[in-house]
Specification:
Elements lengths: L1 E6 L11 H11 L5 E6 L12 E4 L4 H13 L1 H9 L3 E5 L1 H6 L2 E3 L5 E3 L6 E20 L2 E17 L6 E5 L9 E2 L1 E3 L2 E4 L5 H4 L1 H14 L12 H13 L6
Parallel strand pairs: 1-2, 1-3, 3-4, 4-12, 5-7
Antiparallel strand pairs: 5-6, 7-8, 7-9, 9-10, 11-12
Helix pairs in contact: 1-6
Bound molecules: glutamine (GLN).
InterPro entries: Class_I_gatase-like, CobQ_GATase1, GATase_3, Lipid_II_synth_GatD
EC number: 6.3.5.13, 3.5.1.2
Protein name: Lipid II isoglutaminyl synthase (glutamine-hydrolyzing) subunit GatD
Amino acid sequence: MISVCHLYPDLLDLYGDRGNVVAFKMRCQWRNIPVTVRQVSLGDKIDFKEYDFVFLGGGSDREQNLIAADLMNRRDEFKEAVEDGLVVLAICGGYQLLGKYYLAPGGKEISGLGMLDLYTRAGDRRLVGNAAVEVELDGKRLKVIGFENHSGQTFLGEVSPFGKVLSGYGNNGLDGTEGARYKNVFCSYLHGPLLPKNAGLTDYLISLALRRRGCNRELTPLDDSFEDRARDVMLARLGLGRR
Ligand code: GLN
């Protein structure tokens, strides 16, 4: 049984981010892997040890501000689970909240959990558009697609990027990095949503969650012809050839 926690689904859900949870759940169910999803928001009780996959979507500065204190109250337990290999996916605003801080336009600082060594500051223009990133998963390279829309520019410290920008802006439009990765925590600016468009990434996260529970079996292949075709169209538009 895989237990999924969707954190702040009512506040962090930009550009269809909840589709990431749907894709994760459906790709488990299509393989008869039992899966439950629980939605957790401000003030709700949560025991991170019970979960295999935690998802945080994107949100505007306003929502990030509303969440910051609540998330901080959960910091120690969340961090303990992350150190223990909990699989986490955080997108855009959710990603920024896992870093040290987000310096919003006007200079207001929103504290982050500091779980990943990175910080974000608002730039003077929004970074918007379709994007593609090259990601390495278990030694295999994968082109991941999506779109981004953020004013925050993220700068990484002692933490790996999620991938390398092939097209678009990524973390800051300057250093060619996109997102961040620490243990089994994956952070990205890519909406779209990310997981339905990139089935290989979704399966990788499912495998990691299963492996953490001692189950090393190969996932049954699914028919991904629609997803693959959509990725091919997008990659061709970005001038990046095929998968
Ligand atoms: N508020 C953040 C920014 O604009 C995050 C936006 C988002 O989640 N798309 O940088």
